[in-house]
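Thread: guanosine-5'-monophosphate complex, take 2
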Amino acid sequence: MNESCIFCKIIRGEIPSTRVYEDEHTLAFLDIGPLVKGHTLVIPKQHFDSLRDADPEAAAQVMVTAQKIARAQLNGLGADGVNIHQANGRVAGQVVPHLHVHVVPRFKDDGYHWNWKAGKYAGADESNGMAEKIRQGLKQTA
Ligand code: 5GP
Ligand code: ZN
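Output below.
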């Protein structure tokens, strides 16, 4: 738990939230500013700033709950699809530094769009170089 963290305060009940599900390790509640109505946040009850420092087990528990919520949005809201968003670090758009997964129900004509601008590698040298750097990075992770 982190004293000043807004999501830890939600877990402790010090800030009101609209809870939809919780278990021993995770909590799911409505995002206060929904991209689409029903937009739900899933968080671990233990504080981790982001995916970077989360226990793999906690990350897995959060994803299992995100799947439950996605299925519940499809079944309960009659959603036609679901987006999962997850931001790590300010540059990636993370505003609240407590690991969280956005589960966003999608409906035909819901008016929600984001700019997915596909880039391009200059060639195989560049793409192989990127893959090699990621493989090297794997050696630095636990
Ligand atoms: P991020 O940009 O960090 O991925 O997303 C943070 C999310 O938390 C935002 O979508 C924002 O609307 C939501 N949020 C911020 N403060 C609160 C709050 O006090 N209560 C709830 N329910 N959601 C919040
Ligand atoms: Zn926290």
